[in-house]
Amino acid sequence: MQTETWQRSAGFEVFNSELKTYFLINRRISFLFSPKIRYNTGMSADAPDKITPMLRQYLDIKARHSEGLLLFQMGDFYELFFQDAQTAAQDLNIALTSRSRAEEEAIPMAGFPLHAAEVYISRLLEQGHRLVICDQVETPAQAKGLVRREVTRILTRGVIVDPDKLAAKEANFLAAAIWQGRKWGIALAELSTGDFRLTEGQNLEAMWEELYRLRPVELLLPNSCQTEDFSVSFAWLNPSPSLQYRSGEDFHLEAATRRLQRHLGTLFLDGFGLAGYSLGLQAAGAILCYLEENRTGTPRHLTSLIPYAQSDYLGLDEATIRNLEIFENFRTRSRPNSLLDIVDSTQTPMGGRKLAQWLRYPLKQLTAIQERLAVVSFYKEQSLLRQKWRDLLKGLVDLERLTARIVLEQATPRDLIALKNSLAQLPALRCLLPPELPPLAANLAAELEDLTDVHDAIKAALRPEPPLSIKEGGIFQEGYNTELDELISLTRRDKDWIARLEAREKELTGIGSLKVRYNKVFGYYLEVSKANLHLVPEYFIRKQTLVNAERFITAELKEYESRLLGAEEARKDLELQLFQELRRQIGQEAARLKKVADALATLDVLAALADIAARRQYACPRLQEGRGIRIVQGRHPVIEQVLPPGGFVPNDIDLNDRATLMIVTGPNMAGKSTILRQVALIALMAQIGSFVPAAAADIGVVDRIFTRVGAVDDIGRGQSTFLVEMHETANILHQATPRSLVVLDEIGRGTSTFDGLSLAWAVAEYLHDLAGEGVLTLFATHYHELTALSRLKPRVHNLQVAVAEASGDIVFLHQLRPGAANKSYGIQVARLAGVPAPVIARAQEVLENIEAGTLDQVGFPRLARPRRRLPVGDVGQLGLFASPEQSSS
User: Fold this and answer.
1) Residue ranges of the DNA mismatch repair proteins mutS family domain (predicted)?
2) CATH topology for 482-583?
3) Binding site, residues?
4) Which of 105, 220, 424, 817 lies in the 20 to 30 Å Cα band around 714?
């Protein structure tokens, strides 16, 4: 049979041109041929007979876990082989080596030490890899032959709970989505906090909008979706999610329902408000199936599945979230100088995540908003109490994520000590809350259970400063367990004996420098310098020779060493067992811990909003059911913090039933976009229950905020700048209602003047006339002709951003005034931007030529010739809205 090579696609596969099946590893494991992606291991056909037992073990495990990089523990290292090694070496920038020196048998190999594993694992997860962690589950001393290894964890971005791998104030959502026709369902789980929710909708555009709001790090989809190019659809998320295509059986409704009933411990799901959520339940079932497969442990902290509806919250589509820079700065695509960054003064990670959740889902229920505002007002007025409360919060650990680690049996002894220390702060926090509280604060205070029993259980069990690892021993207090105390006493006596042995041997031998030492290889030994070797007695047994000394053992020392090491091993095993029992005991209180954590997070947010309101002179907005947005001396919350104190110019705005459409004109750089955005941001902040950057604000609750701002293309989706603009405009026109707020900054600038102006005019009219009431709209434009709408439509008002002009130069005043601007000052702005003087001079000449209507013999502007006036009777240029008769007159 000719020489063949080994190949792999889904699992390790052996490719043979004649045989489609080859038996490997004692001929018991069959690897079937597949025409899919293959890579060459570099091993020849007779290689199976030369495979080492360790490599056979690796191939067996890899065959069962083909998807993802297999991290295979070998002593103090994690090693990767074959294509996994090549991938890891490239993505981690580590050395790619070979397990065999013979070129024809070379096996690519790469690895990293266990003590640095978390760093490398984090980097691989950030790059979207699925990691299969295969650990040694017995020591070489315990093994009879090959050390046994098992897959202990499967890590992906959506199942991480280790705080070192997560951004403290950012959610880490694992989501699943499924749709049938135009109906869809989404479920999401935050394994690190226990959040488990689902929602459904009727429009696929709404599904994309919801996924953009959630920004999951990992998304489960049915296998049928692989026929479509979803990677492009999700490229605009930052970071884009890892897509996992799952069997359709994972999404099967009946199986998903049974899985959820079993997990939630109920015969029916109606009690959770889940009646009628068929697609959402399918998605939630797929998440549970995925978590079970990834061996994350039983997620008992996912104690409830909460349904929610998009219609319950203020609508924010992709364009609005991006244009208002709510979560990230548009230029850098990072958090600094975003709205969330500027208003986040929370003291705890769980409070930071709660604030982000509120910004992601602002409220529409007036009563709920007012309840939040009442608590913010309370904290703002009680400055001393607020400061003490926030100082105490600063010392708390992330109770939500720590609870998840406890339930998933990943918490360390130090984690439990951190929990104990945080719980010790609860009585002081409760004492800071007076009896007379606003209703929402009173309800939250009632949920701040002291959890004294949990605190005392940890305090009674663990030493104040235990080791990091649960396998090192030295975890528990003396007196906690009788058997453990006996083992501790035994090891202490034997260690004392060894210490006495050193003194005794020094006296008997006369070797003053003799030392009793220990290492993991030789155990306990006596070390004697070369200068004193002539004094060594006969009962010393030579063990090792060094450059300047020799090491010896004695029969008596080895006997005590055996007793001591046996006792220490028994002690460590018992401590491990006791700690696991204690951790499970604490995990049984997950529901209570989560309730306290959620109450603390909410109070943290409310106190933080009060803190920034006090420091930045924010005003309490007056919200109402009626329509209208009236803002006095409003400021942009982000820009005013970037500018020097007093550098921001505030402005007023008054949108109401008599003035629903404001046409805003003025030059570039004058501040039109800033004013438009700040109105939208103030409305959004008011509806999360925050004070706002203004002297006063009256806000009628809006159902959606829409924005169309700036010029940007979307090459990934094959959309030009103008097409993106029209797509966003169409979305607004289809979904806006009289209760919406629409912010438009330039419509129609990506096409010809007449096309653009016509579109802008028609869009403005449509928004004015919608449902006979119009939509509250701010419309910034350089089409000055649009200002004529104020004479045609009753609810259109003109506003201009004022400038001062002197000797051809302009000064931006950044003040919003009634009326329409008559110039855009584009050439002056170009001069300020540094456009070369010859270009500015020529542009001014061309502008004057066009404005003067200087024409040549066939009616075109003389852009390249000296200007001249046409004789009376020549045909002149038509104005945009002038008839030939009007032009000739």
Assistant:
1) 740-756
2) MutS, DNA mismatch repair protein; Chain A, domain 3 (1.10.1420)
3) 666-673
4) 220
